[in-house]
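Researcher: I'm preparing a figure for a lab meeting and need a structural model of a single chain. I don't have an experimental structure, so a prediction will have to do for now. The sequence is pasted below. Please return the structure as tokens so I can convert it later.
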Amino acid sequence: MVENCAYLFLGDDELTKKNKIDAIKERYLDKGFKDIDFEVVYADAKDSQNKNLTPQKFNEILSYLPANPSKKRIILIKKIEALKQENKDVLLKYLKSPAESVILLLDAGPADNTDAFIKELAPFVKKVEVGRSEKIDVFDLTRAIINRRTTDALRILNKLLQNREKPQSILGALFWQWENAKDKLNFEKFRTGLKLLLDTDLRIKTGRLDEDLALELVVIRLSYLA
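Model: Understood. Here is the structure written out token by token.
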């Protein structure tokens, strides 16, 4: 095995994980080819024809070499615990004879050392423990807003988005919670907040504003109103 050709990230502390991945990218990627030589693959993703990642396609992804032969190509595979068995076999076979010019970053998310697949990967990877972040949901976000904890609310929102919570689901929860908080707010503040939520929904659906930015703005404004 080529030293450090594959890193296995265990844990769901997304901020720590991002920082470590960014450091690896900074070290190994040619700055002029960052967009070409860094690829993210989701184990549970589907293509435009709604088809799952096939072993053939997975093999092709792993075989691509860097645009700059003197540098590296980095492939980040997210949610490897969701790989189909045939793709797990492809990955294990590749790791037994990896390309020197390719670095794999394997994101195991909530999986740990007791997982059967993680045990199979262990001899071929460098493990990177990134810890366990607190379990949060959209109700934590709305509680932070109602209590005017803007900084906490933005941190929770960022965590939800990193965990691939759908923006429309987050916005729907905000609508529901704002309605429930009606008795705690004066009428003008309640009505203003409702209008902000409706405007945000429209901006997201029409593409007038980036989803993440739209949510950040409405969280800040609702916190101020509350």
